[in-house]
Amino acid sequence: MSRNTLHLLPSGLALAIALTSVPAFAQATDEDSDLPNGEIVVTAAKRSENLQDVPISISAISGNALAASRANSDDDLVTKVANLQLTSIVGDNTPIFALRGVSMSDYSLNQSSPVATYYDEVYKGNFAFLGVAMYDLERVEVLRGPQGTLYGKNTTGGAVNIISRTAKLGETTGYVNLGYGNYNRMEASGAVNAPLGDNAAIRLAGTFARADGWFRNVVPGMPDLASTREYGVRGSIQFEPSDTVRFTLRASTSYQNPRNYGIYAQPEDINRPGLSKFEIASDIAQRRRARTYSVALTTNIDVSDTLGITSVTSWDKGKLSFYEDTDGTASQLLEIPYYDRASQFAQDLRLTSDTGGPFDFILGAYFNREKVFNRTTFEIGKDIDLTGDNMVTVDDCVEGLTNADPTDDGIACLFRNSFTQVKKSYAIYTDVKYELNSAITLRGGLRYTHDTGKQSDFRADALGVDESLVATLIPTSSLSYKTDNLSGKIGLDYNLADGNMIYASVSRGFRAPSFNAQAFFDPSELSVAKAEKVTSYEVGAKTQFAGRSVTLNMAAFYYDYRNQQFINVDPSTAAQTLLNIPKSRIYGAEAELTVRANDMISLHSGVGLLSSKIIDGTVSGTVVDGNRLSNAPSLTFNASLDLTVMDNDTGKLSLHPEMAYQSSQYFEVINVPRLQQSGYAILGAHLDFETADGRWTASIWGKNLTNKLYFTSRVDLLAGFGFDYNHIGTPRTYGASVGMKF
Question: Where is this motif: TonB C-terminal box (predicted)?
């Protein structure tokens, strides 16, 4: 089956037909934009440009559109962006993004995704830095393809840029929103902007949410899982001492301590007898905790009318800990507490020209230092009495290690590892463009990257249930790497007489080596995965028609994917090794279309097509050549309608139905048939009212209206532990909110 589905796109002709026959709609709308037809300004190429003038495959969504559609978590972006997927194996608000089939097949808390996440140009690589981000936003930009030149961190898959609203001079404005929903969801968000004299201003924004868990726990006295309990606060100061110097200082913190997610264990008749689809029997009550702190200073200096200097200096600190009931049952077969503590310092410095002539450039330097401490414990069979004395003590762990088959009677041990990891990245980069004539522009860029990493004080022990030491399985060890990379991009833009553009490019991205965080049982599990590389060949078009009321953007691509980093789980022993899949290929396309029929009706949508195939790879002794990559559905589609029902002196009433569909996919590369996620659609809608003066708003909303059960990650543990490990998506949620602007 896996090979047959690879032929969804059998020829270039079929691809062209698909792009022109499927209704696809762009999401590049911004109610606050000063451009005609609500077009959006992006900074994807480190310059403020109209989205239609940037020769990159980008989806841009305004903050207003995100807020109206209840996209209050990074996880919600996947229903709005073609060819964007996620794995939620680490939990809500800590997504592992996949873009065009390039993904991170590793859930270890020390890893960094090949799809980089940025908050206001600051790279957030570790899960401990993510926190609560989706509030008081200007927009979100999703860049597809390798980011091997301009962006702070060299990545193979793409970038998600979350851009917050900053303080504005001379304005005293603000808003507050309050809401209530099912599962007793209570939420509040707001912001206030105030001047600080003539040359400065401050903006304070915050969000708060609390909800009961939607995964109902049937164990008496135990709390429901997958709740919400979080807040975030962000402050920014804008200071402009002169017309040529601007400082933006941002500081933020967030805290989350909900009940952790639940695991949907299969087969149901063994692991979930008598339970409905959103019920669980769990013996874990601990809360998930995530705390973040962030400070960043952005400095812009106009050296002359044609040259500008930009500096982004940032510091981040975060902690993430949670206790996972891995077996998804009230037994103590397999449970895993995770702990991640991280800090980073980063500096991005660049010189940008804007001559107005045929030649312009960006020249920059980047440094990032990230320090991570991880501790993970495999708790296996804590309630198993192997000695027969009617007690579970350290002696049962000794007995289990000495005599028991872990796939038979169990182990009755805690297997714990811990280590410190320090990674440094140094880079020099440049991006240039040269207008050969009024129609043709040549673009290029190079980036030299020097990365180093050290994993120190790695140790793994077997402990008794009282945490007393039984055996040291991996003595204190250290690993390191040092690597250099030269990546780049070359492209050509052709501007048509009607203002539309077609472009072609070849680019390469690089992802630094990684350390295995899941070694527990033997020193041979310690390893460094090789650097990952993607070479991309892409063609695209940015077009507008009918007086710019119709926008159609398209792109087609081919990826040569080398050494994808992959965590391999042996289903019979749970031993985990970090591997590389030597070679894969991906090809596909996206199309996004916005149609503004009139002032009352707008339609937006996107379609993504993918064909992925492993050319050379072996996992758990199984040759996976010809298999599909994980998190790479052949088809993704999203659509939304903005329909104004009433617009008069009383106010404006509008209806916004939306849907997102994805075809079948795997979450692992062996392509186990029973673990395939079949295709599914998610439906949502919101009904909004705004008074004629724009001061008051009210909304009724719903998400996953059909209460669809779908998986967001799946792991085969059936052979060794008797269950398949699954995460599931959020069920139906709905509610109402009111807001006031001042």
Answer: 725-742
Q: Amino acid identity, residue 133?
A: A
Q: How far apart are CA 59 and CA 92, in angstroms?
A: 22
Helices (H) and strands (E) in the chain, counts: 6, 39
Instruction: Calculate the alpha carbon distances from 386 to 399, 402, 434, 573, 575 in Å.
Output: 7, 11, 74, 19, 22
Are 684 and 730 contacting, i.e. CB atoms less than 8 angstroms apart?
A: no
CA 428/CA 431 separation, integer angstroms:
11
The tens digit of pLDDT for each residue in 544-598 reads 999 899 999 999 999 999 999 988 877 666 677 888 999 999 999 999 999 999 9
Q: Which residue has the tokens 């109902």?
A: 216
Inter-residue contact 562 to 583 (CB < 8 Å): yes
Torsion of CA 640, 646, 652, 656, to 10 degrees: -10
Q: Give the span between the Cα atoms of 427 and 419, in whole angstroms.
A: 27
Confidence at residue 415, expressed as pLDDT on a 0 to 100 scale:
95
Q: CA nearest 537: which of 504, 509, 511, 563? A: 504
CA distances from 66 to 77, 227, 634, 641 (A): 9, 22, 26, 14
Q: Which residues, 6+ apart, have CB-to-CB distance to 140 below 8 Å?
A: 60, 61, 63, 66, 77, 160, 161, 162, 163
Residue-range domain boundaries for the chain: 2-741
CA nearest neighbour of 174 among 206, 218, 208, 214: 206
The answer to whether the peptide bond before residue 571 is cis (omega within 30 degrees of 0) is no
Per the CB < 8 A criterion, the answer to whether 619 and 631 are in contact is no
Residue reference for tokens 């200071």: 239
Residues β-bridged to residue 493: 441, 503
What's the CATH architecture for 2-741? Beta Barrel (2.40)
Per-residue pLDDT tens for 198-246? 999 999 999 999 999 999 999 999 999 999 999 999 999 999 999 999 9
Q: Which residue has the tokens 């041990």?
A: 413
pLDDT tens track for 390-411: 999 999 999 988 875 544 556 8
- Beta carbons of 67 and 136 less than 8 angstroms apart: no
The answer, yes or no, to whether residue 27 has pLDDT greater than 60, is: no
Between strands 601-616 and 532-545, the pairing is unpaired
